[in-house]
Predict the structure.
Amino acid sequence: MRYRPRRRRKINSDEPKAFYNGRPIRFPREHAYINPEKFVNKAVVQEDQVDFVPQHNFRDFPLEDRLQLNIKARGYTTPTPIQDAAIQPILEGKDLIGLANTGSGKTAAFLLPILHHLRQSPDHRVAVLVVVPTRELATQIDEEFKAFAGGLKLYSAVCVGGASINRQIAALNRRPQVVIGTPGRLKDLIGRRVLRLDGIRILVLDEVDRMLDMGFIRDIRFLVAQLPRERQSLCFSATMPREIEQLMRKLMVNPVTISVKTGVTSEFIEQDVIRASSKEQKIEILDGLLRQPDFEKTLVFGRTKWGVQKLANRLSALGHPTEAIHGNKSQPQRQRALRAFKEGRVKVLVATDVAARGLDIPGVSHVINFDQPNTYNDYIHRIGRTARAGKQGKALTFVSN
Ligand code: ADP
Ligand code: MG
């Protein structure tokens, strides 16, 4: 018999992994039963909404004029609740845990005071490290950083898997002040001695509960061990399981906790279930829904990479221009799919949980859970791709009848 080397399983940094004897292994995350009642929720009717009155205007924060200008140019007129409450303590140098609903502006809540810090003490070493669970989220935060950093002479580098490492090395050699990345690639760059973390003064863990769960905790421990003890640590998420909270607190010193969550899920999402008894029936119902005019931009979540691709093919064959995003695609393919959906060239995107966290896609009208999420927290993040920045949205979850 011909010798065939065992193919090493490709492990994406954004998918759960664990280790045994130093080797990565994968085990399926348990599929917990979630009471279908939890998938039903009425959105707050617009008239019932009490308008949030911020304590601050952006002008009240001691941010320099150019930054104020960039904020305005971005279209931000008043701070969101998390920005209102978190910017000041971050400016004061405090460690901070920021909990706020999906789509409520957590990114700017940390980027704006960080930009201010960087301007106060210009420094030619990497000073800020932002760690996130997916490549797409890293790129998105980088775009937001660049929008705010215009004219400030502050630079960033994105370090994520699936993209040319040489280009990232070149970017790091230009000594950006901010590095945004996913754990696996960051570790790799440290191993190659291209990235050093001993000059980091601010650490941001976005989607922190995901960063500290089984899939990433080892990598995060590795990264944190390289950081100076004296630093500012900032952690953000819309969800915070208790076990994770304890882990997180160990990384921080006397953190201020800001929780401005208005409910478990965003109050702007109308949520309901759809009963179906088979996969074929689910596809039939989905086909019918996608034909309705109000399904302008629909994000469909499936459980497995393979299932997601198959469903995308089926929907395309049924006449719905569809893209798919999952860990079996190359990074350029993933980016292209996301862009086509963002720009409205396709109305349907089918995704694994790789798209569940943090992505800010304007105008998603519906999120559909074709397969149920593993946990209720995963549900919160999936449906949080709609109804962002004060807009309304709908979420539908298939349950068996
Ligand atoms: P989160 O991280 O809380 O899920 P994001 O930071 O991705 O939310 O922000 C969600 C959306 O809201 C983005 O499109 C962002 O540009 C927009 N946004 C954030 N802050 C403001 C603001 N103060 N005014 C207007 N839009 C905002
Ligand atoms: Mg976010």
User: Anything to note?
Assistant: The longest strand covers residues 269-276.
